[in-house]
Design a protein that fits this description.
By secondary structure, the chain is α/β, with parallel strands linked by helices. It has two domains: 1-150, no CATH class; 151-213, no CATH class. The chain is built from four helices and twelve strands, in the order E-E-E-E-E-E-H-E-E-E-H-H-H-E-E-E. The protein has helices at 73-88, 117-124, 134-147, 152-170, and strands spanning 10-17, 23-32, 35-41, 46-51, 56-61, 66-71, 94-99, 103-108, 112-114, 181-185, 190-194, 203-205. The strands form three sheets. The chain has a five-stranded mixed beta sheet, sandwiched between helices. The chain is globular, with a radius of gyration of 17 Å.
Length: 213
């Protein structure tokens, strides 16, 4: 689907681990001189409702007769960006993009959310405030290439890590920092946030129990 964007500097279905053994899977990474685009693809049909702050978004099917909830892809991809920035030891070069190729979107978000390949191409080829030189592009590409894991066993372990992460969040432990989530007061409601804020901006709604990465 995405190979026409940038034939030389693109990765699909990237799995890697950090130094603590935590695994991260990213659908697509596109590396260009105007940024590193971290792309999360959601193949949901129907209508999609949600906003940046909600822990879960809603899929509506069959004219409203069927509703399903799934973890907020904005938060999910923010975690991907966070882990990739640690892997590359770089900041402020990433652009998060969420793609819904099959859905009607009724979402409120400050982040980039689009409907398919054409819109994604426009986003990737649009101007940003990011400028990367050839040496930096090569460094990024080589680091990802040497870090990515191609192993069925590793992918099974990744699913196991997701379950462990869900247990941590249910116990009010930040899945990124492994430290306590503390109760905070937002503009309209209370929520749990990482005690390592502002370095870590992970949040959890009080009634939320499960997430995905």
């Amino acid at each position: 689907m995405f190979h026409s964007i940038c034939p030389l500097l693109i990765f699909n279905d990237v799995l890697f681990k950090d130094k603590n053994g935590k695994s991260t899977q990213i659908d697509h990474i596109v590396i260009r001189n105007n940024g590193v685009f971290v792309v999360e693809t959601k193949n949901y049909a129907g209508r999609i409702y949600g906003n940046d702050e909600q822990q879960k978004w809603t899929q509506v099917l069959a004219y409203g007769d069927c509703k399903n909830q799934f973890y907020n892809p904005v938060k999910q991809n923010n975690t991907h960006v966070f882990q990739l920035s640690k892997l590359l030891s770089m900041k402020d070069i990433f652009v998060s993009v969420i793609v819904f190729p099959r859905a009607e979107l009724y979402v409120e978000s400050d982040q980039l959310i689009c409907n398919g390949k054409n819109e994604l191409n426009e986003i990737i080829h649009s101007n940003t405030n990011i400028q990367l030189n050839r040496d930096t592009l090569n460094k990024i590409y080589c680091k990802i290439n040497e870090s990515k894991i191609d192993s069925d066993i590793a992918r099974v372990e990744h699913i196991d890590n997701i379950h462990k992460m869900q247990d941590k969040i249910a116990s009010n432990i930040c899945p990124r920092c492994n430290i306590k989530l503390v109760l905070r007061q937002g503009k309209s409601n209370k929520f749990y946030g990482c005690s390592n804020y502002p370095k870590c901006k992970f949040t959890k709604q009080i009634d939320d129990q499960d997430v995905a990465v």
